[in-house]
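Q: What would this chain look like folded?
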Amino acid sequence: MVEEDLETQVCMLQSHLDGMIERVQRNEATAKRFQDMEMRLLSLNSLQELTQHILQDVQLAFSLDSLCLVLSDKDADVKQFLSEDGFHFEDYSNLLLLSDVNVFKSKLGLSHRIMLGASADVLADEFWPAGATKPAVVAILPLVRRGVCLGCLVLGSNEEERFQPAMDTYFLERLSKVLSVCMENTVNYEQLRRSSLFDTLTGVNNRRFFEQRLQEEILRSLRTADSLTCLFIDIDFFKKVNDSFGHQVGDLALKHVADSLKSQLRSNDILARYGGEEFVALLPTATEVKGKDVAERMRACIESSPIEILDGKMLKMTVSIGTSTFVVAKAGAHKEVAGEELIKVADKALYKAKNSGRNKVFSGGEVEAEPLSNKAAFGAA
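A: My prediction, written as structure tokens:
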């Protein structure tokens, strides 16, 4: 009898030990996933990269059924930063940008604690895409830095036991803090980057500089009656480059394209990175024919100069280009012309180049300056 009791106790202890070992192994695996995630997050350099990584990789890394990133965006700065870098909002319905920042205080409270439980109990409608089915349970991670709520990350699961109020939140709290630091750093970096006049990656001018110079060049054309041609340039299938080879190769490709485009321009021409994989160029005094000729040289230069990426493998790039030309029949008083009109015409031509098979140049034609009548220019007699 004693032997049977002892054997039973040994079996129970062994079972308990096996359970402990299994839990330790699970915790080690979880810790490894979190560590890998943290290192990846800390290595990202832009808000676009950070946002895409959160929306795509976090869900896969932790086998979540759903996920939603909600960011505070009172002044629409985050939306502008992402737009300028070519972020495809239509591909990410699980990214929400809220202009009403008070909703975070009212729904998350002031303690900024992680909220766990059934989505019906803890998940506010403001923190989930409209019309999307909510998961069974959620973990809501507040993103807070220096007392300011930057947003929240909602992790969703259809396994009801996955996120329960009584569970340990150590790993989730750590992830929340790392994400908060990364989000603050990248937003600050984007603000600093845009306060400059140069794109740090490609070494050419940025969009802010281009928009300033565009209006200046239009005014100069009105004074001198010289033509002004605008080129809108887009790298073909650039998303596939990032998806297939990673962002480092994508950055290398952007730099290569910028250098190739610049090599075809005169010293007084203006080249800028407009956003993402888009570039724009201004050619003062260039007619429509001359502008299209320059665009064709750009296209041919990039097509004929692939770049070496990995183990001697060559990556071939192509671009599509749309052009527009501002023309002034005679110097004198004219109605005010917005630079956006010239860009709009070139962008429409680029759209045609894309739809016709890419790696092409299309001209959008001329935008004519409209002169003021004598009465409008000098007032009624």
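The first helix runs from residue 2 to 43.
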